């Protein structure tokens, strides 16, 4: 198993750092999958402590790395799966803000590590070398099946998301009233966020959001545009998802599967992020 | 013991401090006060003036600063708060020293503001009946003083003058902030009477001296997460490396190992006499860095081999700051804990003068114990003992003598000051293997410990 890659461009480094920070906010421990053309950050729904939430983040390696070499576990399985603490990677990348170059490679120093080597440019225009050895755990082949790309569910309603920052500030306040948030949406571009307690119920209405063209036309015909599809989720999980989004995505879609789950499909430039929150039982 | 009514004003003068119980007064001082009250009983009508002439003026500090000076002063307090929860205010002719020592005695900080730093600076010692002088021994809780110096940027903008005033016969320090728009904020902070501890460390004898701009160090420290308490500084004549401390016993699987190399050309002064790797606590270094950024002065690091303390200092026209950090000793047999610094306590001359026999005995006992423990096992015994004599004789950098009493008898100084620079902890037969043991032999004499052991403030 071998992996070595290099980022030489400051903008790419910035972007990669931001992706890593986003992942760190969404998952404590996650899996990094390395393939010849893509990198994935994966949180499986079976992950302990995840509460059923799952995440799938994919980025095309050519858009980030100027050099990229990998050799998977075997010829037929040319992939590498390692588990790491996401924050370790984001912290290491954050120290590379003034870097001339950044190299990442898989090493084995007493135990497997992802080694990040940074060449910093100092004021006196001389280089300073910084190295971070991030401990990782290699995931054996037999567990790979749990870490595959989740199937996009057949949603009852698909709707474009409003500005995430607005949603976040609204939901932040709602968290103090109740733990259970109802997300409902219809094919008319309406999205409601509702909470209820004994004394009060609060609803925030987002209108004219627009709906993406659904893949299966049949479903949308059966459904009246006004009819809401709703799902009740843990508000803290939703907030955690929103906390990870520092910038508004290029495109954001919310798919509601009535009473089952909500699926968020975001695109940040060339990085795609999918986040699944199951309904509260 | 019944006291005549008239003597009560006198008692307030001598001991107008909050009651801490008997623990605060050493035997010597208590005996002294007994003497006074007996004397006064003999007088028919003691008056205010008589009281003053008997006691002389109390030890006093009075100083004033402008808004921008307050910012630096506040930064010093914030940096020292990283070391411990207690702060000594220690005025002398050299200026006002702020001192702090952590509870496990592995870190010490002192920021000395020279008299010219202030808009005005007055101080005095108290002169007691038998002619002995004693300083303002003022210890404040960080919790009380830190909030006053919060939001330093707004303090700098709004404060026109800050005045600090205290006397040893009052129980409090008065800090007044004269702000814009005629607002005056007065803070009364009670203090505990306590002799400041100081660390005597001859930093100029260190083989390795590095001077660097704080920004470079700050860039290095940022690499280390706050969960990593200790960092290792590894030096050779060719390069300097700051890295995560690796302990064999630690579970390395969860933490990131980071290292940063800095070339010699990045230092303003680079002297490496001995290739070495020293490990120390990151937290106090961060405190020092914060302060140095406020003063825009480079930091000088003095160090030697593992186990010997590391001194971080800033030398500025108007102030001098020194942070002494203990470093991990090299031996595998030792419990992994930073070695504690050896501290000395300045003694009140009155203690010795009045109850010389008692204290003298304790001095001797302690000295004996030092030589007993030091001699057979301690590899550095010779160095230490010679340091003791060296310190007595050498001209003192600011660190050593906080109150240079010029009337001091050289003969008694070796008894008075346990000026041991302990570069490693006491021998293992002491049996103390807690994580951060107070291993210093300068537990001085029992009376001093009692005096300073009380930890409750009554505000």
TrEMBL record, chain A:
One matching Pfam family: Hus1
Coiled coil segments of this chain: none
Taxonomy, superkingdom: Eukaryota
Cited InterPro entries: HUS1, HUS1/Mec3
Family under the similarity heading: Belongs to the HUS1 family.
Designated name of the protein: Checkpoint protein
Organism: Pipistrellus nathusii
Automatic annotation (TrEMBL), chain B:
Family: Belongs to the rad9 family.
Region (Disordered): 1-26
Family annotation (CDD domains): PCNA
Segment forming the signal sequence: none
InterPro entries recorded: DNA_clamp_sf (IPR046938), Rad9 (IPR026584), Rad9/Ddc1 (IPR007268)
Species annotation: Pipistrellus nathusii (Nathusius' pipistrelle)
SUPFAM superfamilies in the record: DNA clamp
Pfam families for this protein: Rad9
UniProt superkingdom: Eukaryota
The protein's name in its UniProt record: Cell cycle checkpoint control protein
